[in-house]
Amino acid sequence: MKRITKLIKEVLSTPPKEKECDCGCGGCSDKGTTLNESVAPKQILSENLQYHVHNKLPLTENTFRYGSRSFLNLWQEARYLYLREIINVSETDQEILTETNLGEYGIFEGKKVPLDLPMEELLNEAKKKKKKDPPIGKPKRGGSKAYYVYVRDPKTKKVKKVSFGSGGLKAKINNPKARQAFAARHKCAQKKDKTKAGYWSCRLPRYAKLLGLKSSFSGFW
User: Fold this and answer.
1) Are residues 70 and 147 located together in one domain of the fold?
2) Residue that is last in its domain, among 75, 109, 129
């Protein structure tokens, strides 16, 4: 391990120079990623880059999510080794490694950002990360009816908006007789499906505080 570590330091301390294919392969630029074993052993490569070398795959065929840390690290490592003639790459990869700074970072408005990665892609990734499901199971006022709530359908796993309650009538949740009549009329004891309006209408008193209603009753109507 110490020998390999020392070798890695020696190889990576070699100053970069312009790439010229002299490995005798007859045209490395037309092939996938290969290693010049006469210059360095494959042990200095990361596991991800070793995979490309072993299968002679172009770097452009990596399976990492575009813009991810692993994606950028692969290009950064490949450029470092390519400029030192440790690896040979395809013609397309060569253009990316020599004409862009993909995999490198810079400072923009005080923040570390990847270079030569289209801002549109970065913004899309940021939006995906920020996009979250709305609060599940927490009724709110408004919507097409008096109240609405977001639930997750147990079958499709998708989030669904359920509107319930009558906008023109006042909920008599503090009137015992009214609650009992409503529960009997709507068969609240049988309402088990959270994706249906009936389930939430029958349990309105439980969410009185969330809806700005005054009630301490937590059962059915």
Assistant:
1) no
2) 129
Looking at 129, 155, 171, the residue that finishes a domain is 129
The total domain count for the chain is 2
Residue 9, φ and ψ in degrees, nearest 5: -60, -40
Q: List the pLDDT tens digit at each of the 221 positions of the chain.
A: 455 445 434 544 445 444 444 444 444 445 689 999 898 898 899 999 999 999 999 998 888 887 888 999 999 999 999 999 999 999 888 988 988 888 898 888 888 888 887 655 555 655 665 566 788 999 998 888 889 999 999 888 889 999 998 755 567 787 888 888 888 998 998 999 999 999 999 888 888 888 887 766 666 66
* Model pTM score: 0.45
Q: Residue 143: left (phi > 0), alpha (psi -120 to 50), or beta?
A: left
3-state secondary structure of 161: strand
Pair 32, 101 in one domain: yes
10 Å CB burial of residue 74 (0-12, 13-18, 19+) is buried
* Residue range(s) defining the domain that contains residue 192: 140-211
Structure-token pair, residue 111: 């923040």
CA distance 53 to 46: 11
Q: What DSSP character marks residue 15?
A: P
